[in-house]
Write a structure and sequence with these properties.
The chain is α/β, with parallel strands linked by helices. It is 42% helix and 25% strand. The two termini are 30 Å apart.
Length: 209
C-alpha cells in the first residue's frame, strides 16, 4: 500500500506543473459534468478529494463564493499548484491519502471525487472514509473512467502493465456496488462520453444513516 501511495505521489508531483495544459479539454469536460450534478445554497462545507491543481475549487467558488471548501491530495506539488490558483479564496488544503483522511467524522455536506477513482488501491476503504466525513444525508458525486466502454477497458489493461501509479477502472455496476457497500444510497448512476475516446460514469449518492 505504501509503495503504491509513493508511486501515485511521485507521478503527480512530476505532472503537476504541466497538468492543466496537457489535459485541459478533458479537465473542462469532466468538471462540467460534476457541476451539472451539484447545487448549493452557498455556505456548505465541500470536500474535493483528490483536488489536483484546484480547478474544481475555482469553478465552484465562481458560482458559489460562500462555499467552505477543503481540497485534499496526496501530491504536495499538486497542492502547491492548487493553492497558487486559488490564492484569493480561503480554501483549506490537506496533504493526505483518501484512504486515511485526517478529518473529523461528519464534517462535510458534500464530497466530490473526480477523475481519480482508478488510482485508489483500496477503493472500498476510500469510499468508507468519504462516508465517514460526510454528515448523514450528505452528498457524494463520483466521476471517473468507465470500464463499460471498450477503449477504457483496453486503456486500463495497458496501464496496469505500464504505470505503477494506476490501479484499475470499474464498470458502472461495480462502482455502484462499492458505493452501496460503503454506506451510500445511489440516487443516479449514468454513463456518458465526452468524445470518441473517453467514456465516463457519474454517480450521485447520499450518505445513509
Amino acid at each position: 500500500m505504501a509503495d503504491h501511495s509513493d508511486a501515485v505521489r511521485e507521478a503527480f508531483d512530476r505532472l503537476a506543473a504541466d497538468y492543466d495544459r496537457r489535459w485541459q479539454p478533458y479537465i473542462a469536460a469532466t468538471l462540467e459534468s460534476v457541476l451539472a450534478a451539484v447545487s448549493f445554497g452557498g455556505t456548505e462545507e465541500v470536500l474535493d478529494v483528490p483536488c489536483g491543481t484546484g480547478q474544481l475549487e475555482s469553478l465552484l467558488l465562481a458560482r458559489w463564493p460562500g462555499l467552505r471548501i477543503t481540497g485534499v491530495d496526496i501530491s504536495p506539488a499538486m497542492l502547491c499548484e492548487a493553492a497558487a490558483k486559488n490564492r484569493k479564496h480561503a480554501v483549506g488544503w490537506i496533504e493526505a491519502d483518501v484512504a486515511d483522511l485526517p478529518i473529523a467524522d461528519g464534517r462535510f455536506d458534500c464530497a466530490i471525487c473526480a477523475n481519480s477513482f482508478h488510482y485508489f488501491r483500496s477503493p472500498l476503504k476510500s469510499l468508507e472514509e468519504l462516508r465517514r466525513v460526510l454528515r448523514p444525508g450528505g452528498k457524494i458525486v463520483l466521476v471517473d473512467w468507465c470500464d463499460d466502454y471498450l477503449v477504457c477497458k483496453l486503456c486500463s489493461l495497458w496501464l496496469r502493465l505500464t504505470d505503477r501509479a494506476f490501479y484499475r477502472t470499474y464498470s458502472l455496476g461495480r462502482c455502484r456496488a462499492l458505493l452501496e457497500q460503503a454506506g451510500f444510497e445511489v440516487e443516479r448512476a449514468e454513463r456518458f462520453r465526452i468524445n470518441l475516446v473517453w467514456g465516463l460514469m457519474r454517480l450521485t449518492c447520499r450518505a445513509s444513516g
